Each structure stands twice: as C-alpha cells, then as structure tokens.
## 1
Amino acid sequence: MAAIIELTSASSNLEAYLTSWTSGFQTSYGAFWDEGAGLVTNPVAGTTYEQWGNGTAGSKGIYLEGEVQYARGNLTGTVDTITLGSGFSQSNASGFSVSAELVITPDSTIPGAGQDSFDWAIYDLTVNGSLSSFYDYLGEVGTVIEDTTASNVLVGFSGADTFVFSGGVDTVKAGPAGTYGYQDGTDTLDVSAWGASSVDDIYWYDDTDGYAVIGSVTDASVGITLVGVSSSVLDVSDFIFAPALAA
C-alpha cells in the first residue's frame, strides 16, 4: 500500500508549500504523548504512545497519530496519520495539534521491526529540521497524491506516484531537492474523476515550451501540464480511467 497524500487549500501548490513549511519549521526535538503519561521526552522502551510531535508553539509543526513504541532509534508499531501544518501546540492533557495543511496516511508496512526509512525520516526532521529523508521514505513506498478541486501544483517522489486529479488545471513538476516531476513508465495519472473512461475522452499535445498538456474532450475546466515531459512519450498505460458504464 502506498502512502496517501491529501492536499488542502493551504498546500495546493505543493512545491511552494514544502519549501515554505521547511523554511518556517524549527525543531524542538519532539516528544511522545499518551493519555496516561502526558508529554514524554524520554520514551520508555516497550511503552505504547498515541502521538509524536515536533514544532514551535504557534508556528510550523508536525505530529503523527497511531500506536507506536520507540527504542534506540527505532520506531515500531502503527502510524495512522501524519499531519503537517501551522499553529503548533502541545499539552499534557490533549497532546499535539496543528491547523492541518497536509495530511499523509502512511504505507502500512513501515515502520517495521528494524531501522528503516521512516526512522531516518523522523531522525532527519528531529535533528536537522529537514524533510529530505521524508522524501526518501515516500519514494521508497510510493504515493497516491490527491489534489484539490482547485488548480494545483503537484510534485512527486523517486518511486511510483499516482497523481489523482479531481478538478482545476494542474501542473506536475519537480520541487525541492528530493522531489520529482512526472516519471514516464513509473508514475500514473488518474483522470477518472473527470469522467474519462478511455483515451477517447482525453487528448494531449505539447505546449510552446515542449511540455505535455492533457485535457478533457468534454470539460474545458480541467487539465494537466507535465513540466519537462514531452507528449510523445504518453500512451494509454500512463492513465487510470473511470470504469466504462454498462450499455
């Protein structure tokens, strides 16, 4: 199962959002939380915690929810959601909170029993205040990136990404170091929400910059530009379509 990334209006330009969030984030080295113990900065091996969070009060922050344990650099258990946002707060009574701007549902196979890319993602964020290793984790597990109904700027990662388009005129491109644009033969474009059930319902061509532009035959309000990609490489295998209606 790939990690699912849900954009909001605050992160609809994902390229700009990741850059802005990182530049505004200051690590506090983080803490764990559960209802019984409150905030814990020195987690006890074998103890299950409901949240981990990191950030500066009133500013950028991140927290994860699930049932996790931590020992000697190894996070285990299950992580249900990871939320990035602003207005970070923490308390012994209720744990962590942010104004949610980007929500990620992780791949179910990581974190695992041994040290893995998710552990390095948390370490890099905690020690260096960097998302670079988090991008590596997303590249390893693959992603499903869900846009908003407005126009968006989407970025992918090093692995298999499925870009899901629900509306608006979107652009797919590389963003901060460690992110990628559309990778032909690896990524896919889900246009099922357009009502497209086959290649007969869409068209594509190159714009004046030589970038692939994809449109709907029946809906001029939607579209996709793939920066750095020529339309000549596209074929039916690049798309996910809606099921055809029975006659």
## 2
Amino acid sequence: MNRILIGVIITAVMMLVGCNKAVTEPQVVISPVVDEKKEDINIEKTEQPERSEQPEQTVNPTSLPVDIKTYEDETHKKIIYSKLTLDTGSYHIVSETSKDNAVTYKCEIDKGTTRPKTNMFITIQETKKQDFQDVESIVAYLRDISPDYENILIYSNVTDDSGIIDLYSVEGVGLTNYIVCYSEVCYLMESDFNVLDSYLFQNNPSEDYKIQQQKIECADSFTSLVNKTFSSKDKKAEFAIAQGKGGAKYYAQLNIGDKGEYQLTLKNEQGEMTLSTFASSVDEVVKFLDVNLDGYADMQFLNQAGALNNIYDLYIWDELTKNFVKVKCEEMLSNFEVYDGYLINWVKDNIQSGVKQKLIWDKNTLIKESEETYETN
C-alpha cells in the first residue's frame, strides 16, 4: 500500500511540472523573411503634356494667289470681265492682275497718239445690286463712296446696245468709281480715268442727272462752295452757292427752253436777277469761278455765241452788298486765263491767228494794259 501511495505522489508531481512548463515556455512566432537585396521599384506617374489651344488660322491677304499677265504689243484693246465689255480706244492693255474676284488692267496710250493722259488703270469686281428708290438715294450711296466728290453722273433706265441699263459714277480726289448695272448683275469699277462712261456705252445716251461740287479756296483760309444739279428730264440746272466767310446764300436756276434758249434766274434775300441767252450747249451758258482770286465765287455768263469767239459777261461777288456786280470792260471777253491781279484774254481773228490781251483789275473794271498778235502753227 505504501508503494501505491508513493506512485500516486510521483505521478502527481510529474503532472504539475509538465503543466508549469507548458505555461512558461515562450510562444514561437514565425515572421516572413524579407529579402534585403530586393530593390524597391518606384513607378512614377507620367503626366501627359497639356494640349495648348491652337489659334484659329486666318488668311493673310498678301498670301492670296495673284495672277499677273503682261502684254508686249498694242493689239490687246478690249477688256472683258464676265458680262462687262469695254473697248479701250486709243489705249492698249499692258498688264492684267487678278486677285480674289477683282481684276486690275493697266493701259498705255498707243504710239503716235496724243492725249492729255498717257496711261490709266481700271479695277473691276462684281458688286451687290442695289434697290434704289429715287435719285436722292442714288446720290447718298455715291456720296458714301466718295465724300469729297467733285462730279456725280446718273444714267437710269438706259436702252443701249451694250446691255447696260443703269450707270452711276462719282469722281473725287483723282479717282472715279463707276457702278455699272445689267439686268441681273452689277459691277464696281475704279479708275483714274473719269470718262469711262463714254467707253462703256455704244449709243452715247445722255445722263439723267449731273451733280457738281466746286470748292473755291482763298489764301485767308475760307472756302466758297458751289453745288450744281442738272436734270435733263426736268430741263433745268440748279445752283446753290455759299459765299466765303459769312456763308451768304445765293441760288440760281437755269431753265432750258425751246430752240436753244436759256434763262438764268439768280435769287437771294435781297431779290432776284434774270439773264437770258441762246446757246448750243448748257455747259457753255453759265460758269462759276473766282476771276479776281479773292476767294468768292464769281459768275461767267454767255452773252452771245459765235463761230470763232463766244462773248461773255462777268459778274464778281461784292461782299459788302452781298450781291453780284457786273464787270465793266470795253474789250470782248472770250477765252481768258485768270492770274493774280489780271486776266489774259485770247480773241481769234481766224482759226490760226488773233490777239492776246492783258487786262488789269481796277475794282470792278478790267482795263487793257497790253495787246499783241499771235499765230498758231
């Protein structure tokens, strides 16, 4: 029994020792092995470059294609631009430059031909057809093209073999612009030649309206203005005159009668004056110009038409009375040139000879200072 008791005690002691060992023995933790030789790979984010907005491309007019043709001989004498046809007469085309929808023709005078102008240019392009209601709207349109105009011509509802039905022109500062209209299309022409209407028409129609703006300038820096409107339909010409510093207003109306009779009526606030004459052309009846170079508009009126010499009366502006005063002169005033303080007056004896006179101003009187004969070759 003692042996059994000893065995039980030993077994109990061994069990206690085993339990204590299980509690005190540290727990082994297995960590993953890290390879120190392995390099970290840092993948940087690659940024895409910003897309800059490209500016909108514009067309440089100087880079547009230009087509230039040149001509060596004098045989090229007709301009044809779509429906528009123009015979250049005594001129021939030396170059033709096309750019965009416009063509510029340069012309020179034919050899052996004498003209005051030896060369000219003409630029043509199509333009929008305008719907004009009346003459005033046409004039306003032309004034916008050339505000400092000198002459305006209006041909309306023309019947001509060229096919042109309307033609308007405005001249100013050395250039003339033409609006040439056919039934379905219009063209804008610009030129340094101011009588292209006579080259465009084939049957030489008369203009319906002619408007002239004349400036008479003085050394004292004031200007007199003369505006003339001629209507072939109404058979009259109207003048509006603004004189010099004070701008005194004067109006004149030239009525065209039968058989070459003309009657001029001048009006201002003080009254009116009427003059009559006979002439073959309205352009030779009355003219406003500065004959004594004082800056005011004076008047030249046809007294009598002649085969060799026309005889004119002169009326100078009197700023004191605000009226025209007739010039006293014992000589026949025919074809004269204006100079400072005097006139040179040419009077024909026949086609080839005559007298040349120097007429000196003395207030409102012209006095002959000298006279000599002349002959033309």
## 3
Amino acid sequence: MFKKASFLLLIVGLGFMSCSKDPISDLSNEESLVYITNHDKAANFSQYKTFSIVDSVLVVENNRAGTSLDDIDRAMLQRLITNMQNMGYKYVSRTQNPDVGINVSWITNTYLNVVSQPLSSYYGGYWGGYGYGFPSYYGYYQTSESSWLISMLDFKNPQTTPSGKTFNVIWDAQIRGSAIGDQALVDKMADSIFGQSEYLKIK
C-alpha cells in the first residue's frame, strides 16, 4: 500500500509539474531582454568630458561585416547620445578630438548543430541486437543569435605601438533577448545599460 501510494503521489507530482508554467517561455518579449555591462576598473571616468559616436551601426554576421543605418539604428544612436549627455558628457564631432568614442554593433552568430538518431544508444543497441535493424542517422538544425554591442573607447589616452595607435575599451554593454529588434523598446534598452552603469556619470 505504501509503495502504491508513493507511486501515485509521484504521478500526481509529475502531472503538477507538467501543468505548471515554464518561467522562460512565459516571459514577454520585453522581459526576455538581458543587459550585460562591464568596465575597466582602473579607468577614471571623471577625466573624460567629451564624446563622439559612430554615424552608422557595424553589422557583423559570422565572418562577414558591413554597416547599417535604418530606423532602429538611428533610434539607438540617438538614444545613446541622449544618455551620454545625461551622464554629463558633451557631444562633439569626430574631428574635435573627443575624449571617448562610442562604437555600436549588431552581432549575429549562426551555429550548425548536429544530432544523432536514435537519441539513445540503449535503443539503438536493443533493436540492432535483435536483428530488426534500426540504422542511425544524423539530423542537422541551425540556430542563430543576435545582440547589440556598445563599446566606449578611450581616445584621450591612446596606446602607441609599432603599428600605430590603439585605444582601450573602458566600458562595454551587450543587449540580448528576443526583442532586441523591436524599435519600440530601443529607449528602454539604451536607458537600461546606462542605468546599471552609474560609474559613468561625471556630473
């Protein structure tokens, strides 16, 4: 009786779990957004006063790259400018020797995944062992993930190398999620990465 009751409880428990909400699939597009920010711990942001920003978005897909300036790109660039100004930085052109520069990229990585059928070696061995024949085969499926990448470069303190000047990245932010291509959420995305980067504020 005890074993049977335990078994029934297990079935009920499994049924309950199968009917419960999936915390991932139940997220709205906006709730799926993830913001990752990082900065150079040695950087003294109070030394920077002016900034400039790229005039288009760099689009990188696997080993290919180009630029884009559609409506959502313009909206993102403008909102980044607004946030930098709210942090106390003065917006200047690239010809006016800005202290920092803002790069904006749209990164897409595509992966080819391989899965072997049957999924379990147990079943493959069982059918093969009894002579019925259950040949394995490979299935292929492709996944693709995109993200925004925003970087701040230190133009005020360039590094001199034999090949020329290089500039350190002193802050960057990545935005991921199913809604990153939604123009209606551009302001929220840009505001959020600055909202969790209070150390950038100079006023």
